[in-house]
Amino acid sequence: MATTQSGLSRRRGGPLPAGAQSSHNGTAPFAHGVSSPPGASLNGTSPTQRFGGVAAAASGAGGASSRPTTPAGHRVAFDERDLESSEDQIMPKLTLMEEVLLLGLKDKQGYLSFWNDNISYTLRGCIVLELALRHRIAMVRDPNRRRFPLADRYIEVVDDRLTGEVLLDEALKMMKISERMSVGTWIDLMSGETWNVMKIGYQLKQVRERLAKGLVDKGVLRTEKRNFLLFDMATHPVSDPTFKDDVLRRTLGLLTARTAAVPTSDLYGERVRYRTIRAVSMVCAAFSANVLENALVHLSYDAREAAFAKCDELLAEFSQWPFAAFRPPTASGGGIGAGSASANVENANLAEINKLARGEMTSGEGGAEGQTQRELHLEVVAAVLEVCRRMDSLL
């Protein structure tokens, strides 16, 4: 029997089970208090039929067999964004910004040096680096761009999917809705280095504090209160040293190798995309941010100076496009003098790093078109390192 109210027609349900309360509209209240048993129907229809479109779309998208269920057979609601995606498997646990910040933090005190003015600008460059390595941004595909320096070439968003990292997503959204600008311009604007009051809103504020809080959420750091003269300040000492130990081992493996072979076991995992290019970018960014010395403090004076010289050479080679395009051929044969053997080993090691980087550029899917797109992503990496090298030369 159907009743009509306000032009709407509905059918009354059958008698309710004992103990069940009827709601004001005559339907079983499974939203409050009473839940339907597995397989129970309402008004002679199954839940799938009653909410036909929604259930069918859900089962069609993922399949009922792929949905997690309880032992009683009930399906469990979940957010697919909480599951590990294929991109998470080829990305390291920490971003480049977080690794550079970790190198600058004092382990027990939990704060950066008060005299370091370089790290803020470099961290904005690391944001652009990370977006390029994650294939979110790329150089604008324009043949005329080669007439301009790397830092003056325009970049664009090619994939606006969120990364899950707050700072990266904030920068990505700004780039998406804004006009195309060059690599150097974006780093300047995100750092607040502009006289244009109309673009002051592009500045990313409190980057170091937000990165530190993100590391606290990941279990790498912890938060403490310390008193500095008359003020209380939040500090973030290292809670889990394994992450920083990995960064230190990666840095020392690249800069202090005594053989021609690159210690790939000290780099990122085998499944990490562009692991050699990423490691070189991290070391060069640490050098630009003036925090690299913290990783080399236990070395002797000569070994530390040699590591700085090698990092400077890596920065010079990877801040041009293609990488190491103007590198002289590796010296071969015995040289004269005490330092010739070590110089040959270092040259061979640098050549091996460049070889691994070129291999990462050419490996991947998509054929020739995919190769071209990867080069556009990595050209942004070279442009950011050019900005870092130029900043270091000014200092």
UniProtKB/TrEMBL annotation:
Its main location: Golgi. GO terms for molecular function: phosphatidylinositol-4-phosphate binding. One of its GO terms (cellular component) is trans-Golgi network. It is found in: Golgi apparatus, Golgi stack membrane. It holds the Pfam family GPP34. It is a peripheral membrane protein. PANTHER family: GOLGI PHOSPHOPROTEIN 3 HOMOLOG SAURON (PTHR12704:SF2), TRANS-GOLGI PROTEIN GMX33 (PTHR12704). Belongs to the GOLPH3/VPS74 family. This is Vacuolar protein sorting-associated protein 74.
